[in-house]
Input
Amino acid sequence: LKTALPALVVGLGALTAAGCTTPETPAGFEGYVFHKPLLMGKMEYRKTIKGPGSTGVSWRLYVQNIDMRANSYQEDFDLLTRDNLSVKFQASTRIQLRPGSVRAVVEEWGGADWYAWNVKESLRTSIRREVMEVSAIDIQLKTDVVRQRIFDKLTARYENAPVQILSVDIGNIEFPKEVTDAIQAKIAKQQELERQEFVLAKTRKEAAIKVLEALKVAKQQRIISTTL
Output
């Protein structure tokens, strides 16, 4: 009995040490705290920690920390625009998980792999659809308009999700040389048409001013003649 008692004490100490944990969550993260039974039973969610924080010494509590800070996710595209011109570009989407959403992220969105598992492909599909509905010239001259359309669609898509879209940028736009030449020709033609319209509008305005001046002079002459 005397020899068994120390062994029992050592065994209980080892068991206690194995069951005691101190889950910690760093700044910028939220911690999904769960309990893991020692022998049998299922893992159970217990609470959320907003970093920096800790549960203190606990009995078999563990934590999965999720980065809640905003991050940029870059995706490369190579597709055809509405006018069947090939274009390569890079979309950079700045995304942040909504505060307090760590439980949904872990249980429904893949945890730390939430972007790769539940966002990446749907985001790529949304961007692809929007770009394929515009012309190559619009991508060149109206990048901000295209970017805003993509941002609005993504914002609406994830309105009720843990994911929050902060911004969308389109850059590194590349066309094959022949396509670039064709676009530049279209742009030059469009600019020439705009210049001609400006000149025509200016000519019409000047002509209208001359007509008004002539009418004014004629009216003054009629008044003088009537007076005399």
User: Anything to note?
Assistant: The chain is about 50% helix and 30% strand. The two ends are 144 Å apart (CA to CA).
